[in-house]
Amino acid sequence: MVLGGSRAGKSAFAVARVRRAADGGGRVAVVATAEAGDAEMAARIARHRAERPADWATIETPRELVPALSDLAGKADVVLVDCLNLWVANLLGEGPHQRPETTEAVLGAARRLADLVARRLFELVLVSNEVGWGVHPETAVGRHFRDALGLVNQMVAGVADDVVLLVAGCPLWLKGGP
């Protein structure tokens, strides 16, 4: 699991890790959770695509992450998920942001993801933002997202072999190691 703040170098670090894991011809898949809702996001998506080798399969799934990963069992040796924070935002965007059952639905999906990670179906690298150290969100929706993502990150980090925090492009190993 690769964590960090905005522009901390998470995706580049994760791509390099996947390259090393696939060295020798492993089948690689990228599961992307972003949606190009505006020009800025479309540019970010294009930049991320350009940073990856063209022969890596890409599956775009803003909400159905666990089924997409399950479907890759036996079809991929190494999988990159970029990123959990957009997945959580997409899930929260489907329902009323301040209702407890929305959080429960997200946490249920996160439990299913953690169960899948624990099964070790393939080498898996997951990227997520660490948003708990930033500016305190002004809105209830922002605070709800921050709290939900923090809980999701805890669940996934709990079953990951390695957890690395990127700060200014520098990796800090929280669990496991290089």
Task: Summarize the structure in words.
- Helix content is 46%, strand content 20%.
- It contains six helices and seven strands, in the order E-H-E-H-E-H-E-H-H-E-H-E-E.
- It has a seven-stranded mixed sheet, with helices on both faces.
- Helix 3 packs parallel to helix 5, helix 4 crosses helix 6 and helix 5 runs parallel beside helix 6 (140-159).
- The two termini are 12 Å apart.
Structural descriptors:
178 residues; alpha/beta; 7-stranded mixed sheet; 7 strands
Which percent band covers the strand fraction?
15-25%
Mean pLDDT across all amino acids: 92
Given the C-alpha coordinates, what overall shape results? globular
Helix percentage range: 40-55%
List the helices and strands and how they pair.
Elements lengths: L1 E3 L5 H13 L5 E5 L6 H13 L5 E4 L4 H7 L6 E5 L1 H9 L7 H20 L3 E7 L10 H20 L3 E5 L2 E6 L3
Helix pairs in contact: 3-5, 4-6, 5-6
Briefly characterize the structure:
The chain is built from six helices and seven strands, in the order βαβαβαβααβαββ. It is of the alpha/beta class. Strands 3-2-4-5-1-6-7 form a seven-stranded mixed sheet, sandwiched between helices.
